[in-house]
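Run log, item B.
One chain of 386 residues. Sequence copied directly from the ordering sheet:
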Amino acid sequence: MTIKELEEVVSAGEGGTIEFKETTGQKIPAMKTLCAFLNGNGGTVIFGVSRKGVLTGQLISDSTKKDLAAEFVKFEPGFEFPVEYLPVDDEHQAIVVHVPSGKAKPYQYDGRAYRRVQSTTSAMSQAQYEALLGERGGFRSPWETETNDELNLESLDTELICETARMGVAYGRLDAMADVTNPRLLLRKFGLMKNGRICNGAAVLFGNDFADYPQCYLRMARFAGIDKTEFVDSRNVQGNLFDLANEAVAFCFKHLNLSGKTRGRITRDEALEVPVDALREAIVNALAHRDYSNPGGSAAVAIFDDRVEISNPGVFPPDFPLEMPETSDDSFPHNPVMARVLYLRKTIETWGRGINLIFSSCRDEGRLPPSVTERNGFVRVVFPRV
């Protein structure tokens, strides 16, 4: 956008897809409106316009940009916000943020979804949210077994495919007569190839090229304090499921504390403040059971002073006992074909008992159990840091 185009937009005034803010001091209501635009037909928020509709701009510093970035990470599913800084005079700039109609509706900002009605932004009702979620797909999606003509064996880590088969045979979970050297035959055996065409699920599990797969993305952040106001470290990575799981575990080891218990006079047992087995299981579950039909969402690991949150786009199966999640056998995976492959190599140790293993690991190490919630199309497992 040029400054002349901006002046024309401002002179036309606010409306259903345009909202003005005097400064970024009004960033929170602005974010709610951007969320509403994503959930609707798109729109533009302009910072640096007075209440009288005069283009004044504002002083911009590094702190201003960091404040906006800190608000953008509160959107789920994640979204890359295009931000333009346009000079109004020698000292002041206007900030223009334009978003299209989102492809992964419904979106939420800071845990709440919003909608736009004419020139007003308001919280979205649960019924409205569920209607948008229903349009995106139900609990199970055929996405993992849909084929992609752009995929070929060069797009995949064929050694990882063969390694998975070898592990399946070694663990007695795959026919000992299986040819563990032929990746094409193995993909067919795994249910990840149809009529000579490779399925999306193969890219998630074994891919090495993710140009067509924004879903294969993981957000990680260590926040200062107990909210998302300021982060001290962040890392965003793309990769196949195994690479992402390893990156997430490594990030947790970097930012969580080790404690030690002495056995006898010499031996000292080191333990992470969140049980490693529980943490790893929650991370794998987030990646294995997420809703991959949603290209805009991403799994995330957020570490705060008081807790660790692991989240993924998706919903629990019907009749899941949220009040007592440890009693569930979790036998209705969102992506059953990929889950079966993970079971072969014990990435999912006992298929159908993921939540139970998380709780039992915490209990065995004398740690408080996590909370498990589903809200606005996201599943969260939250471990207390005590």
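Observations after the first pass:
- The CA atoms of residues 67 and 229 lie 8 Å apart.
- Residues 241-255 form the longest helix (15 residues).
Flagged for discussion on Thursday.
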